[in-house]
Amino acid sequence: MSQADAPGTPRGAIECVRWARIALLAVAFGYVGILLIAPLAGIAWTVVKGGFHVATETFRAPDVRHAYLLTGVITVLTVVVTGLLGVVVAMVLVRDRFVGRRIVSAVVDLPLAVSPVIVGLAAVLLFGRGGWFQALFATRGIQILFALPSMVLVTIFICIPFVVREVGPVLQELGTEEEDAARTLGASPVQTFFRVTLPNIRWGLLYGVALSAARAMGEIGAVLIVSGALQGKTETATLYIFRALEERQDASAYLVALTLAGTSIVLLAAIELFKRRRIKEMGR
Amino acid sequence: MRQGIVVEDLDKRFGQFQAVDDVSFEAADGQITTLLGPSGSGKSTVLRMIAGLERPDRGRIWVAGDELTNTAVQERRLGFVFQHYALFRHMTVRQNVAFGLSVRHEPKPSQQARVDELLELVGLAPFADRYPDQLSGGQRQRVALARALAPHPKVLLLDEPFGALDARVRQELRRWLDNLHRELGVTSLLVTHDQEEALELANRVVVMNAGHIEQIGTPDEIYNQPATPFVAGFVGAANVLTGWVWEGHVHFGRSAVKGAYHLEDGLPAKAYVRPHDIRLTNTESETSFGVTVDRRTNMGWESKLHLRLADGQILIAQLPNDELAEVSLARLVFAELRYAKVFRSDGEGEPRADLSTAEFPAAVPGT
Fold first, then answer.
1. Strand arrangement, sheet containing B289-298
2. Which residue of chain B has the CA closest to A190?
């Protein structure tokens, strides 16, 4: 063992570092291999084994199509709303000094710390029978719980920290000098935002939005609780996988899981690209 | 009607910190006025209040005869040049310069013409399609200047414009700005902590310290007739000798320097002596006193000497080398002070100069 004779001699120390590096790399590759690649490969294998007809049957099924559509709608709405709200919240947190700023900042992170199931329960409490806001919407005939609005609402709640936490540091780094310069040159606050601030934070914003989209597509806990998982009505792609497994339609479940995973990998590639651009953005 | 920039009774606090304390001055039409002071003296805050980037707690601001105290930043039509350029990093040089015109929806052809004219003026026409991070610091600041000038501002405000540049580029750009100002004649207010810059560029200098104005005057007045101990110490890197007043002289140990005729006998006093106002000889006279030369540093055409007085006080002198050649440092050396500005040092200080009587010369065309 090289570690045994390592202490004292510089050569021994270098050897020691080399072995430690190899060990760490092995752990990292083992982790990625066993926990991420192997399950993906397993899913892919199961799908292939099931045969081609499983794929055509699954993708033709109306409830599967509806589940994809619903996930798509929720993701798009979440991306738009978290993008807008995230920028506004980040600007307020970075630019304004007010009493309770730290508390607001902590609350923004809350969804990262709290289990999505609890977020779902909270929504049920607010909008369910006897909830604070139930009467408000019920009298106007607007269905919140067990319908799209509550599903979008909880997803947005869970995803908003991703945008705020990405845009915030970029804004911080950017400072206010360019915005000041724009103002002295005659730009209104709106012109300043769209022509100076937004172009400067675009990669950070896209990065945050991509993270938020990936999270929105994969969300199940909170959505399960507020949606009621009504087949063909409030069943998202993840909820479909959940049900298909219970009904022993393993091949269909794995197939949908594979498409979701594939989309996530594409998003991941995009995120990686945005991250690099963002680092350049902050470095300049 | 008063032209140029006029500020009256400006106050600004940041929390407990009084950044600007009752500041009033005028920057005459068509001239360069500098706001000179150490960092934290409030000079940049004054400039930012004139631009509208900070709100004064009290006081009023006029530019070119119009009161702007409560006007929004974007309505003021003032050019502002920042220390760190503040160029729009995602825009080319051309887009940067055009920004002030395009946000006001000027027609494209006239924008184009104005941008070309300004890029020509600042000598950056070949760089029009580059991005700011492809330019040197000096070039970036010239872009920033072109950008500020493009919408025909009523005045130009410059916040430590050369502060982030190295010494050689700073010199170059200073001369260039001076020429540009002669050409354009736009009223300019320049903030700097560099006294050389302030004295070289300005028609008039406003010296600030700890939020208030110490003195307003021409560069000549500021240098030769400092109104307060602060100005005497800050402008011209002065030595300070402490002693007592007796018959118009400040006495320290067995030596004395004249210049205290305005003070009563027996008062403690400080004499401010510039390194260039010291002469050295080998012969004693009535006005000279013996010193020991501790150290000599040759800086090319002149030398810096650390002189120790009989009572232990240190005096730093700067003398041309050809003048020094006539003195033998190996023999007894006597110092003669050509000029000293004396203030009492018992905490009373000199009363602050009466700024209200500071006269403004009429604008001289072509300066």
1. B278-281, B333-337, B289-298, B302-309, B314-320
2. B103
Measured distance CA(B155)–CA(B30) in Å, rounded: 9
* Token pair of A35 as six digits: 């926990």
pLDDT of residue B214: 95
CB contact under 8 A, B79 and A184: yes
| Lookup result for tokens 């929390």 | B15
The DSSP letter of residue B257 is E
Cα–Cα distance between A141 and A158 in angstroms, integer?
27
- B48 CA to chain A: closest CA distance, Å? 10
In the DSSP assignment, the letter for residue A186 is T
Give all strands (DSSP E) within A161-278, no chain letters. none
For residue B363, the 8-state DSSP code is: P
CA distance A104 to A106: 5
Phi, psi of B241 (to 5 degrees): -110, 130
Is B103 in contact with A200 (Cβ distance < 8 A)?
no
Average pLDDT, 10 consecutive residues per value, chain B (367 residues)? 85 93 94 94 96 95 94 94 94 96 94 95 94 93 95 94 89 91 92 92 95 95 90 84 87 80 86 89 84 90 90 89 86 85 68 34 34
**Given pLDDT bands bounded at 50, 70 and 90, which one contains residue A78?**
very high
Residue appearing with tokens 């509550």: A150
CB atoms within 10 A of CB A12: 15
Long-range contact set of residues A193-196: C-beta below 8 Å, sequence gap at least 24: A195/B99, A195/B103, A196/B88
- The interface predicted TM-score of the complex, written ipTM, equals 0.82
How many Cβ atoms from other residues are within 10 Å of residue A277's Cβ? 15
Q: Which two tokens stand for residue B278?
A: 């010291």
pLDDT at A283: 55
Give B82's contacts in chain A (Cβ within 8 Å).
177, 180-181
Contact A185 B90 (CB under 8 A): no
In tens, the pLDDT along A105-151 reads 888 888 888 999 999 999 999 888 888 888 888 888 888 888 899 99
Q: How far is B319 from chain A (nearest CA, A)?
A: 44
